[in-house]
Design brief:
Order of helices and strands: EEHHEEEHEEEHEEHHHHHHHEH
CATH class of the largest domain: Mainly Alpha
CATH architecture of the largest domain: Orthogonal Bundle
Number of strands: 11
Oligomer: single chain
Strand content: 15-25%
Number of helices: 12
Number of domains: 3
Radius of gyration: 33 Å
Structural class: alpha+beta
Largest sheet: 5 strands, antiparallel
Helix content: 40-55%
CATH topology of the largest domain: Trigger factor, domain 2
Shape: elongated
Length: 448
Amino acid sequence: MTMQINLVSEEGLSRAFDVTVPGVDFEAKVDQNLAGFAKDLKLPGFRPGKVPMTVVRSRYRASIMEEVMNETVQEAVRNALTEHEITAAAPANVTEIKPFEAGEDVAFSFSVDIMPTIELADFSKLSFDRMNPVLEDRHIDDALNVLAQRGAEPVDIENKKHKVKKDDIVILDFVGSVDGEERPGMKGENAMLQIGSGMFIPGFEEQLTGKKLGDEFDFDITFPEDYNAEELQGIEANFKIKIKELKQLDKPEIDEEFAKKFGKESVEELRLQIKQELDSIHRRSSRFLLKREIMDQLMDTHSFDLPAGLVDNEFNAIWQQIMNEAKAGRVDAEDKGKTEDELKGEYRQIAERRVRLGLVLSEVATSNKLDVTPEEFNAAIQREMAMHPGEEAEIYQRYTTDPNARQSLIAPMMEDKAVDYILELAKVTEVDTDPDKIEELIDQPTEI
């Protein structure tokens, strides 16, 4: 189909085009599509493929015309991109379509964001510290004690004079009230609470500490301002308590019998396994922190305009997730007290960061011909299948037939390849680090 395409505007990364298609060409394409549609058309009272064209036109011309218009727009976009040697960053946006009148030309306009030109930094001038976790016996001892604690069994405390202390398990009845009126969810029988667990509201456990079996008492306490039930936020309540049982955890001895529960013949074998697992965990954390630093430096060393459409799409996805979390009562503590405009401004900055980093890493991969091999892709599918036993066939089908699913698997692999490429060129200093320090840094909120 012949068409005239004119570039009418260039503003930053936005390009606007006007398109004109001869009316006779457009109508000829509509008639051609109608004829093809009529060949297989089945209508009551007519033989298949023998429906008169007058009937076909009267019933289906409008829908076929819409179909041809969509095809024409897509063809115009492809031709415009090819003619002007530009790469679209996102699907084109049709800004205006002139209502079609018989005998007149078809006219419409569209705009498209193009990909920016990205000049990659000299990665050999970048420097990073890679934290090398150094495990000591105390780290393995702590992990062993955690395992033993998990296997501990609660046993009754026989000393009737025993006073409640940290780690004790208290079985209690409680009734809460506000201004003398009981509230839903503030009553429990035979509730189990381990002192130090933080399962109840702040200050509740402290009121139990020092009490004894059989004690009955009450106390006033104020619910925190960020309590999940809004009607109780900041409200002072009274709780009546009866301590019915006291228990403590009987932790098993860390010996050969204990090791055999984990498939090991000795404590030393178990310690070795724990050391290997801890080392793997901390090295993954170290890798995450290194990637965080790489992303920060990529942000500092790459400045270019961002396609507005990509930023909008990323922001909308983030904002929708935030709204869904808010509806479910899950609001980030740092977001509380901020206006919607403040939140949108912050999350738009996050969207811009993600888009910029995505474009930089994509350019690293493209310019250096990095790719995920079929073997690597299949190995990734196998890992997904291993994590979902019983769903192997569905997993395999999804990742081999759905382009979006395939891309979701490939994208993080490509990111890692780009990061590894940067590390090969950059100066990387190995720094022996206490694993506890690594995990502390991991817990600090950030936007990678």
